[in-house]
């Protein structure tokens, strides 16, 4: 039940990337089957397990950083090391299960100075590894609430 509650909170969050009819279909499927953990319609790892899976992949060194990711890290004076270390405390902000290059999530993390950072992590379509740091940036306070977890 806990995983169902987590899922329901994620679909009602504004801007989560899931359209209302997709959420209703998903909710119906979960309720009818009673099998939330085994549902894999959000990629090979399932919605509730994605963050845990990317943390495991990082722990074993199965991680890549996109060229765009490197550019953004440099622009915001962030290091890959601090973001990789910070993923243990990451909070999922948005989920993009249907993204064309593979499922991905937007997380809220913090840099070495405890300033907020948004990081997009993904796993390539049809693959189980590696996890890819797609991009990272400092969230704009004009576009995000004071917790940097909801769009204005």
Summarize, please.
By secondary structure, the protein is of the alpha+beta class. Helix content is 34%, strand content 20%.
In words, what does this structure look like?
By secondary structure, this protein is an alpha+beta fold. The protein has one domain. It contains five helices and five strands, in the order H-H-H-E-H-H-E-E-E-E. Strands 1-5-4-3-2 form a five-stranded mixed β-sheet. A hairpin with a 7-residue loop joins strand 2 and strand 3. Helix 1 runs antiparallel to helix 2. The radius of gyration is 15 Å and the shape is globular. The chain starts with a helix and ends in a 15-residue tail after the last strand.
Keywords:
disordered N terminus; 152 residues; 5 helices; alpha+beta; 5 strands; 5-stranded mixed β-sheet; 34% helix
